[in-house]
Amino acid sequence: MTGSHVLALGHYQPAKVLDNDDLAAMVDTSDEWIRSRVGIRTRHLARADETVDEMASAAAAKALAHSGLAPSDIDLVLVATCTAIDRSPNMAARVAARLGLARPATMDLNVVCAGFTHALATADHTIRAGAATAALVIGAEKFSAATDWTDRSTCVLTGDGAGAAVVVAADRPGIGPVVWGSVPEMGGAVRIEGTPPRFAQEGQTVYRWATTHLPPIAREVCERAGLSPEDLAGVVLHQANLRIIEPVARKLGAVNAVIARDVVESGNTSAASIPLALSKLVERGEVPSGPRCCSSASAAICRTRARSSTAREGALAALAIPPRGPIRSRPAARALPTLPA
Length: 341
Known about the structure:
The protein has 341 residues and is of the alpha/beta class. The protein has 2 domains: 3-170, Thiolase/Chalcone synthase (Peroxisomal Thiolase, Chain A, domain 1), CATH 3.40.47.10; 184-319, Thiolase/Chalcone synthase (Peroxisomal Thiolase, Chain A, domain 1), CATH 3.40.47.10. The chain contains 10 helices and 14 strands. Helix 3 (52-67) packs across helix 4.
C-alpha cells in the first residue's frame, strides 16, 4: 500500500443542551450578545459522570459501523483530547476496551484544537510505514469540566462532544501531504492549567492571529494538495466563532464552500470540532467524496465518502491553528457554580 484514506465518520454529542438564556441566568450576558459576537446558540454538555472515553467510544462505534469493518480489523486507535483527567490508562486504551478491539496500538495526543489533524496525520504515516492497516482516529473533549462558569468571556464558547474517522490503507495516497508546525512561545494564548484545571484564552490575540495567519496557511495546504480554494466543498474551523470563520473563508477564496455553521452554533469542542463537523456534513450529504485527503498540523483538506452519488466532487478544509500572542499570568482558579439541570 502507498497511502491511506478516510473510509467513514461518526460523531456524538451529549443529550444535555445549555442555551444562551440559561447562561444569561448564570453570568452577565444575553442571547443577543453571544449570537452577535460568536454565533453560538446552544452547547451540548456531558453528564457529571460521562467521561471523555465514553464520548469517544460512542463516536468511534458509529464510524466503525459505517465503515463495514469488524472490530478485529482495527490495529491502531488514536484519541486527540486536552480534557482527559486520568493519565492512565489512556483514553485510546479505554476506547479499545469498550469497543472490544483485539490488540491495537493505543495512543493519546494532546495538541488542543490542532489535535485531530495531528492524529489524522499520525495515522496516515503509521499506515504508510506498514505498522498498521486500519485506524480509529478520534477527537473527544469534555470542556465543561474545565470551564469557569463565572467567566463570560470563555463560558459562552465551550461545549462537549466527540467525532471519529476510520482511516484505512489505500493503493494511492488519500491523506497528505502534511505541513507540520507550531509557534511554541505563543502557545499560552490558549491554555488549560491549574488545580482544578481551568480553560482560559487571550481572545483578541486568537482572533487577530486566526484572521490574518489562517488564510495563507490554508492556501499553502491547498497548493500542496493540488487544489485551489474554489475546489473546496466545505470549510470547517475548530473555532466556534463566525467572526473568525467567515473572514478566513473569504480571504482564502473558498467561494463555493459550505461553512459548517452548526459546529459554531453548538460551541467549540476543540479537538472534537473538526471530525464532529465533518461527520455531520457528510451524513447530511452536504459535502461530497473522493479518495484524496491532505492533512496538516495547521490545516487539513479531506475528501470522504458521499451519501449522495450526485454530490459535486470536492474537499473539506479543516483548520486548527495554534494562536500567536503574548503569554499572560493565569488568575487563580475559581469554584464553578452549579449548572442548571
